[in-house]
Amino acid sequence: MKEIYDCIIVGGGPVGLWLSCELRLAGLRVAVIERRTNRINQSRALTIHGRTLEVLSLRGIEERFLAVGKPIKSGHYAVLDTRLDFNIFDSRFPYTLYIPQETTEALIEEFALELGVEIHRGAVAERVVSGADGGVTVSGANERPFELHGRYVVGADGARSLVRLQAGIEFEGHSGSGTWFLGDVVLASPPDAPLVSAFNEHGCVLIAPLGDGVHYRIVVNEAEDSGRRRQDAVTLEELCRATARVVGSDFGAHSPLWLSRFDNETRLAKSYRRGNIFLAGDAAHIHLPAGGQGMNVGIQDAMNLGWKLAAVATGTAPAELLDTYESERLPVGIYLRDTTMAQSHLITAFSARGRALRGLFNDMLKVPAINAYFANQVSGFAVQYPEPLPGSAPPRSGLVGNRIRDMPLRLSDGTDATLFGLLSKGQWLDLIISEGAKVERPDWLHPRSVVEARGVPTAHGDTLRDIGAILVRPDGYVAQTAASTSTREG
Ligand SMILES: Cc1cc2nc3c(=O)[nH]c(=O)nc-3n(C[C@H](O)[C@H](O)[C@H](O)COP(=O)(O)OP(=O)(O)OC[C@H]3O[C@@H](n4cnc5c(N)ncnc54)[C@H](O)[C@@H]3O)c2cc1C
């Protein structure tokens, strides 16, 4: 007998796991198929950017991450000396959180299991076949062969996605040129500054703490092509030698936890959907991990897709809503592809001309508005969804399509709440700030999908000046506003 699910997610990395949480929150029956019997034990994605922390906070689990991560108030663009200033963000999280990917995955998996997601570990998906009924069958092998049937399937199965391949979706781009390598190591004589970035004619080195108080990550790109390929092993000796060549010291690196090589292969799925099969995360986009964006963008793909898939699967939204996953997220993928390719070019600009170009970019980043532009892009705060959703009235203010920050609220019954707290169950929020104001909701939006509240912000409410009511999507973006009809209460 076939097992029937609302959605089967192939891939239990950070993206698949986060999507599973979003779907379970809406009560869907969800299975995650994951090849690995154990979670990864590699630090890989070391940074959770501010917007992703907001995503976690929208579901009330940010403290689990803050308790074990290390906030860093700046970031880099192409390892330029002028750092991006994250203090400028109008957010509870004006920083990026250093936390190894293995910990991030463990914490998301913990939440998924609390919500009742079924995670099938050790299960390898081998075939993904769309049926005449619109559903999709995923089959493969675990301890014994399995066959699962889902109304929807999402490929969150990483760069070499089987789902993408079997759905016949092209992965356009180019192969890698040159390699970078890294080591998570203990430093006998750590540098005075917590973060080191160096760039000269010998190469480029980045050193950052892993956040556990013991280990540092060293990332190196040598100017001279070593001829090594992504698959070639890295030795501690190679890491120490190359680091010392660029920075003048290897800081006594020893006891590596992880040594690895990667490249700048860059590809983007031509489409994020074929029928009832969707792609998210690395299955949809791969690039040089510069600025720490892949996992962050992937989790935000999942956040965008989750509530839409849940609404259509439960019959509370029209099928066209699912088209907006690609129309909203593909442009983000295109920007990600282009900005990481640009960084790849700047990071390898070792020649005298190249270094002169970097000098120019360094100076440009000293201009606060330019610095803020790149900081907002890298951290995910710049993402906007300006196109109205199907069945919606035209935007009634410039806030529509933007993310909304968290803020404390005094509700009309005298109790205190937070805006994110009211969104924590994955529903919409219709917040009436001034009496008589009423937002136009999408014509299909069912009242049971909406939390209705009356209240006023008690801090950080500047952006809501002149706004009488606001409708917020489950992923924290403003869907509609209504002008204030009276002076605010409270
Ligand atoms: C050195 C390095 C540093 C990085 N730093 C950052 C950073 O600081 N910030 C950031 O945001 N990103 C960073 N990234 C990128 C980040 O690691 C990825 O973007 C992220 O892992 C993507 O998550 P995912 O869930 O989409 O895919 P994955 O993490 O690749 O997960 C896919 C899962 O699918 C499973 N799977 C695959 N095929 C099958 C199958 N047929 N059947 C069953 N299961 C299957 C795999 O076992 C895997 O667990 C870095 C990457 C590297 C290599």
Structural account:
The chain has 3 domains: 203 residues, FAD/NAD(P)-binding domain, CATH 3.50.50; 85 residues, Alpha-Beta Plaits; 76 residues, 3-Layer(aba) Sandwich (Glutaredoxin). It has 490 residues and is α+β, with helices and mostly antiparallel strands. The protein is 27% helix and 29% strand. A hairpin with a 5-residue loop joins strand 15 and strand 16. It has 11 helices and 27 strands. The strands form 6 sheets. Strands 1, 2, 8, 9, 10, 11, 19 and 20 form an 8-stranded mixed sheet that branches. Strands 23-22-25-24-26-27 form a 6-stranded mixed sheet. The structure holds flavin-adenine dinucleotide. The site of flavin-adenine dinucleotide has 33 residues, from helix 1, strand 2, strand 9 and helix 7.
Please report the distance between the alpha carbons of the first and last residues: 59 Å
- Number of structurally distinct domains: 3
Name the CATH architecture of the largest domain. 3-Layer(bba) Sandwich
What characteristic shape results from the CA principal axes? globular
Total helices: the number is: 11
Low-confidence stretches: none
For this structure, what is the CATH class of the largest domain? Alpha Beta
Please provide a brief summary of the model.
The protein has 490 residues and is an alpha+beta fold. It folds into 3 domains: 3-46 and 100-175 and 266-348, FAD/NAD(P)-binding domain; 179-263, Alpha-Beta Plaits (2-Layer Sandwich); 408-483, 3-Layer(aba) Sandwich (Glutaredoxin), CATH 3.40.30.120.
